[in-house]
From TrEMBL:
CDD domains: EcCorA-like_u1 (cd12837). This is Magnesium transporter CorA family protein. It is found in: Membrane. Pfam families: CorA. It is a multi-pass membrane protein. Residues 1-25 are annotated as: Disordered. It comes from Methylorubrum zatmanii. The chain crosses the membrane at residues 276-296, 308-328. Keywords: Membrane, Transmembrane, Transmembrane helix.
Length: 334
């Protein structure tokens, strides 16, 4: 889909004038998941070569930041901002003296916000560079909001991890055979949640890194053409991206800390299981020893002639089983 925008707002969502050329007031050309025909139409009317999706997805810096005869060709991976389908998709910027072209493959509220700002007269889109600044500023704001949401999610996740106690939850009873299964399921969910946050932060970091490189590149390449009001905006953008990068680093450290804590809880649960098995095996040794002794087929065994020899043997077996349990209980192992 093609949409056109000028300093006063939307120009012509059809993509071209009646003679096939762009309206004179067009500054920003937004291509949202363009077809080959739409890309070719923009190339014919502007002379700007529109890169393919595969070209925008290339990872080397020379392909993402490039000056050509048409102007500047820029690309970066950008998060989808959809928490239900959080992924990276390519985003392309083409910047010339007259036009600013964006090529994207998913809807982003930043673009809708920029359109509204221009329509309401709240943003200066009189030149291609200023329109570029509006889009990048809105993207940085959205990334900041996303990081704030993730910070809140990590706080909640931290509470869940460090207050983890399956026995204290409603419906969990002491001795309930299903409690270990519930604890195992809860720990699996915590581990998956920590992993999802780690992956999401890595994608946000890739987006911030790409925007930081693009902003610095455009500032250096267009230094002579920038107005006095534009340079401070580039400097502010650079500072905002740097601060968000530091914030993301702290959140990544928090994710690593929560991952270690979750793995520690899993180790504790495993140790508890092994402790129970160890106690059971130790408790079973003395009765087995007593039964083995009285199960020997010797001819002369005094207890065989006792009237209460059989109850005596049973009592001895019971006492030998109870004494280890009492010992472990006193030591606090049970």
């Amino acid at each position: 889909m093609i949409s056109l925008h000028g300093p006063q707002g939307a120009v012509d969502h059809g993509g071209s004038g009646s003679d096939g050329s762009l309206p004179a007031q067009t500054v920003w050309i937004d291509l949202n998941d363009p077809t080959a025909e739409e890309a070719a139409k923009v190339e014919r009317t502007t002379g700007i070569r529109i890169p393919s999706r595969s070209a925008l997805s290339e990872v080397e810096s020379s392909s993402r930041l490039r000056r050509n005869r048409d102007g500047l060709s820029l690309s970066t991976p950008m998060v989808t901002f959809d928490r239900s389908d959080f992924s990276l998709k390519p985003l392309g910027f083409l910047l010339t003296a007259d036009h600013f072209v964006t090529v994207r493959y998913h809807d982003m509220r930043a673009f809708a916000a920029v359109r509204k700002r221009v329509d309401d007269g709240d943003g200066d889109g009189s030149t291609s560079t200023r329109m570029f600044l509006l889009v990048v500023e809105e993207l940085v704001d959205n990334l900041a909001d996303l990081l704030e949401e993730m910070s809140g999610d990590l706080d909640n996740l931290s509470t869940r991890i460090f207050d983890f106690d399956a026995g204290a939850r409603p419906g969990a009873r002491k001795g309930d055979a299903t409690a270990p299964k519930r604890r195992d399921l809860a720990l699996r969910r915590l581990l998956r949640s920590v992993g999802r946050h780690g992956k999401s932060l890595a994608k946000v970091r890739a987006s911030l890194l790409g925007l930081g490189r693009i902003t610095a590149f455009v500032k250096n390449e267009c230094d002579q053409a920038l107005g006095e009001d534009d340079l401070p905006r580039f400097d502010t953008l650079g500072q905002d991206i740097a601060s968000l990068d530091e914030f993301e680093t702290r959140l990544s450290d928090t994710v690593q800390f929560l991952l270690d804590a979750t793995l520690g809880l899993i180790n504790i649960e495993q140790n508890n299981a092994f402790r129970v098995l160890t106690v059971v095996s130790v408790v079973g040794v003395p009765p087995t020893l007593v039964a083995s002794i009285y199960g020997m087929n010797f001819k002369h065994m005094p207890e065989l002639d006792w009237a209460y020899g059989y109850p005596y043997g049973l009592a001895l077996i019971a006492v030998s089983a109870v004494l280890p349990l009492v010992f472990f209980r006193v030591k606090g192992w049970l």
